[in-house]
Design a protein that fits this description.
alpha+beta, 8 helices, five-stranded mixed β-sheet, seven-stranded mixed β-sheet, Fructose-1,6-Bisphosphatase, Chain A, domain 1, 264 residues, 12 strands, D-Maltodextrin-Binding Protein, domain 2, 2 domains
Amino acid sequence: MAIGSANLNIMIKAARAAGRSLVKDFREVENLQASMKGAGDFVSKADIAAQDIIKEELMTARPTYGWLAEEDAAETPGSDPTRRWIVDPLDGTTNFLHGMPHWATSIALEHKGEIVAGVIFDAAKDEMFYAEKGNGAWMNESRLRVSSRNRMIESVFASGLPHAGNKYLPAVLQDLGQVLPICAGVRRWGAAALDMAYVAAGRFDGYWERGLKPWDFAAGIVLVKEAGGLVEPIRKEQNIMEDCQVLACNGDVFDPLAKVLRKR
């Protein structure tokens, strides 16, 4: 792996430890699918256990930093108000629950409102995506670059599809109606963190999603940027960390996709 800062190495260590725990639990959850309630309860415990592992690693190493994570009811401010960890111990919970090996652990470090380091660990495939401001983006030992496709009709995008009753469903259906006819395809793989990591790796040409939470995409921001891509809120007037509507692409197809999504 590329050598990073002490903070990045702490993040990678924490992600690996959580990943080991989750892989062990993932083998067990496949045996629980006959009982949806039982499997759901099991996954919740696995999720919380992974978060506890990450919190122990990060907060022991950096006890003054703030903490924002999916499985905690509220943010915990740190004595250092300029830095906070943003953590999703298990992104892709539904995939995990159904025995599909497409889920990840996501850890980001924010400094003065900017994401300066990010780690997204796909433990099932042993792919560690990581980036630090100014030091590039990496997957294991390989440097990452966004794709070089420059035509919408050749580009494959990722997005999220809200479940029934979600307030963003009408907007997403409208998005798809506008994007699908002009591109090579849209994928919905159920793990926002990995969607952004795949943009950084050039596997997807772009990604957009509405109605996220900060821990879903925070680590992906620095990954995509350090891989040469662009990340903005879907609407320019939004604050990406507060409104949580994300658009990430390579530089060539960013404007055409943004133009479609920003029509209304």
